[in-house]
Amino acid sequence: MLILCRLHLDVGVLWLSWQKRLFWCSSLLHTNWLRTSHLDPPPYLKCFRVSTSTIASCPISDLAHLHSNMKKKVLLMGASGSGKTSMRSMIFSNNPASLTSRLGATIDVEQNHVRFLGDLILNLWDCGGQDAFMDSYLSIQRPTIFSHVGVMIYVFDVESREMAKDLEYYRDCLDGLSQFSKEANVFLLVHKMDLVRDGERSAVFQRKVVELEKASGDFPVKVQGTSIYDETLYKAWSSIVNTLIPNAQNLSRHLQIFAEACSATEVILFERATFLVIATSSSNASDPVTAHSLDSKRYERTSELIKAFKQSCSRLREEFHSLEMELAEFTAVLDEMTKNTYVLVVVHNPVVETAAIKMNIRMARWKFEELQGDSLVS
Amino acid sequence: MGPPQHQQQSYSNVVKPKQDVAVHRTKVILLGTRRSGKTSILQVLFKNLPPKQTFYLEPTMRVTKHAFDTVIPLEIWDCPGNITVDTLEAPLSDFSSIVFVIDIRDLYQQPVAKLVEFIVAACQVNRNINLEVFVHKAEKLQEDDKIENFRQIHERVMDRLADESPEYEQVPLNFHLTSVYDHSLQEAFSRVVHKLIDSLPYLEDLLNVFCSNTSSPKAFLFDTTSKLYVATDASPVDQATHNLCCDYLQMLNSFGPLYKSNASPDPRSGVFSSVPGAPPHPNTPPTPAESLDYLSSNLDPPPSASAKPLFYPSASTSLSPSHPGTTLTYHLVTPHLALLALLPTTVYEIRRGLVEWNVVWFREGVGEIWEVEKERSEGELA
């Protein structure tokens, strides 16, 4: 792996300084490609290691057809060591937080296609944050990086010692975005919040929010505090992913109808692989959920709990499939809805049986398959 | 992980917390040099402290006693590091078990000397005392070093005991490799508790019968809050399965309060005790005694002394959708004990009724043993 990184660096330097050797450079890249196929990527990073230089070499017009409704480009940026790759490996590769310390620095851009919700493909660009790379993103690779962006996620380490520099790069990235993709959503994550003491957390976060909003000027941004050690990570990513799903309201409306049919208090739809929340039956204030005043962190805590349980299942070479609970407080069923979603039905009416809920889920399955197909095409 | 108090709540109308009734508690003492992890062990097991937070625990300055109820009531004494046989406020003969905690990275001389001192003192007063050594903080070392250090500590203790007197060579001493960061601590402490439960063979018999009649490869009787298993069937405990069961229990414990309705206090009791004509829950055991209870509860307020709860929480999760998959079931059998069983998915799906029927009988059996144990612990004091 080390050799590979070195080669990449060499390529970068050569590219920048020595235009004449371009031909040689691309031949080197060629050998590189062969090498990647020999060296198996570690299983926890099932991604596609691409040097941006290769992408830069193909004309923009070719890239245009890649950008459709189905394929959303997500830029993951931030200073080196701020936790971009850790986050990605937890959300999309199902790794536990304890293993993230083994991840190495990201070299250049690691491009990752994540099939999210069937036909919706997230084209995740994990951009290495070292200064040399940042400079090249902002200069030579500027059109490649910043065009057709659906969402930019900019990660700030809450304990960063070089906040001024981070902010400067951040402003430059915003410039790039406003030049090439004006309609992109920008999410700012104040990461590693677990390093801040419990009592000071909200105060520190508020300070960061003010600072970041000032730096963003009139660009509309959403700031969230995250940590890989608790549920905040899932909360942030769920809200990010929600902006990418077309017709999320439509799904939510059908979930409401479904909830009514099941006499359920709440129905929550999760994406299968990441267990991020896609839609819930409670979108407006006048639903039964408010009457029960459920825990406000329940969505992200559920994601976290199920992900953790899935990990312990995989340690036993088992695969989690479904769960039904009749606890003292409520009855709930978690089962497959469509081929890439899971549904959690929570019922507080004790007369309702889990078997009935399961039957309802089975009956609703085709409708939601259809709905999902629809919502993605439109 | 949230405090899983929901089990107690659902039983609140049936089992009154008997704080006022003094019971005879079996005593366990935790010893070890300072900063070896004694208080961490207690807090993680019984107070649901996240393992990462144990770093911030204050040193224990005086002996603290923790009461813990499972099948039998326990009292666990947490001692400061500098305690000796003479400064301990109770004679060693009062204790049924001594748990000695050694930090795996510790310089072995001092803790071993202290351990040997206690073993000698304990053997003089009570030859039948259970001696357990937790080689703790195993997560701090790599796999190979871990085994090596564990072996060395074991060897040193045995050598020192042999030096004291040849008769101590025969002292049964159990060594466990533990860590608060995985479930090895739960497993080791479960084994400590097993030796204290006199009715263990009967519980094990019940589990064996359940397993053979339900074609279950493995079943545990877990204490829900501490995630210790009180008993298991005769097949050997596979660590991976045990870990999975612990994680499952932890997930269910956390799910409970998560979707708890804060508006209506207890939906189950609301329907099952006040609404006449509500259909009996399928989990309600259809044994004659129970149906009588159910009928009477509809006519007039149930006689609170003899009534059994009409609802027992249960859950199941199916693993690997392909055949033959495994289903992990959870059935609460007493306010604090739950039966966790691995079942072939085909059995659970096709013969669920029979499985639940077996659970009912299992529950009755455990309930009777529990009653006897309770009577005895209260009687012993009188």
Automatic annotation (TrEMBL), chain A:
Keywords: Coiled coil, GTP-binding, Nucleotide-binding. SUPFAM superfamilies: P-loop containing nucleoside triphosphate hydrolases. This is GTP-binding protein. The keyword 4Fe-4S does not apply. Residues 299-326 form a coiled coil. It comes from Paxillus rubicundulus Ve08.2h10. It comes from the Eukaryota. Pfam families: Gtr1_RagA (PF04670). GTPase involved in activation of the TORC1 signaling pathway, which promotes growth and represses autophagy in nutrient-rich conditions. Component of the GSE complex. One of its GO terms (molecular function) is GTPase activity. GO terms for cellular component: fungal-type vacuole membrane; Gtr1-Gtr2 GTPase complex; nucleus. InterPro entries: Gtr1_RagA, P-loop_NTPase, RagA/B. Gene3D superfamilies: 3.30.450.190, P-loop containing nucleotide triphosphate hydrolases. Belongs to the GTR/RAG GTP-binding protein family.
UniProtKB/TrEMBL annotation, chain B:
One of its GO terms (biological process) is positive regulation of TORC1 signaling. Residues 269-298 are annotated as: Disordered. It is found in: Endomembrane system. Keywords: GTP-binding, Hydrolase, Membrane, Nucleotide-binding. Pfam families: Gtr1_RagA. GTPase involved in activation of the TORC1 signaling pathway, which promotes growth and represses autophagy in nutrient-rich conditions. This is GTP-binding protein.
